[in-house]
Amino acid sequence: MATSISTVDTSLSFRPINPPANHSDVFDRLPDPIILTILNNISDIKTLIRCRTLSRRFNSLVPQSDSLLLRVDRVISSVDSDDHGDTPSLINFIKSVVKSIQDLILPPQSQTIGQSEQTHYSPAMILRGFERIKDLEIELPTGDLWLEKRAAIKWTAEFGKTLKSCVILGFRCGGVGESDLGGGGGLKTRVVWTISALIAASARHYMVKEIVKQNPYLRKLTVNDKENEGSVVMNELGIKEYREEEGQNGNLNDEEEGQNGNLDGVWWRSSRTRVPAVWMRMRHEAKLELSNGVVMEGATLVVVRPTGSGIGANAEEEGWDEGLVASGGGFDGVYGEAVAKLIKRRSYLLEMNSF
Prior knowledge:
Layout: H1 10-13, H2 32-42, H3 45-51, H4 56-61, E1 67-71, H5 90-97, H6 123-126, E2 135-140, E3 151-159, E4 163-172, H7 187-207, H8 209-214, E5 220-225, E6 230-234, H9 236-249, H10 254-260, E7 278-289, E8 295-306, H11 314-328, H12 333-342, E9 347-352
Parallel strand pairs: 1-2, 2-5, 3-6
Antiparallel strand pairs: 3-4, 4-8, 5-6, 7-8, 7-9
């Protein structure tokens, strides 16, 4: 029986195609507005900075990107960015400003940055190369808080010149009962959770003040973290409010200067926005069961607003809370379900002085 063998003409399969004489890069034919749209969809600043090295055209267009995402691995002040000394992360900053309140922030094993590592610039300095930022998101490497074992906090805060509102969800899991939350039905623990979130939010707000001042086109600024623990938002109205206050009072007002005075030149030791006097409307469920079988022990929802916000009677406050939670975002999945259930529970009103 004869065997048939098929052959392939490889010279045809791998023959290079010679481009036409008038060939040019098709991407170069795109108008600038389309390329800017592409760059805005990329948004990641590290990628965009690399794009600047591609050509002179890209080098001129990248700084015009107006929608940016900045992922940082540590946060330092621009005044300290040229130091090759100790540059602790935002976590250590939070730990330092509340060291008088024990067990609120990170445990002692939290690490600092060694002197041998390369100096990193502050977010404000990195963004100086971009001219028309409108929508900016900053992602921090980790959350700011570390509470007791099996305890967790999720929060979202809105700022203008100072805190406008904050929604906080705190809970425990893993079989921790209500009796383990301490005296007074766990009220002390829930207040500690609330203070922790407010301090973290005020620290993030202080961190981005320089960015707001340096970018006149900015319309929305969000600061969150990889763990989705908390989020600070400044929308267009909030940014406008801050700028107007800044224009009237110069830098910081006297009250803030006393709180945040950077006497030793190291920002993370003393700098955060002062939290105004606030109302805290708290809702609580000793054992909250969710549809997927998750059980949150000591589930607590706290809605925080300044005492001068103008909300009047209790009915109005309840409706304001529901509207804020519905529009605030930041809570999805099991956390969104928990918030939706807790907002219907009976509430308790507490007042806290400025700090």
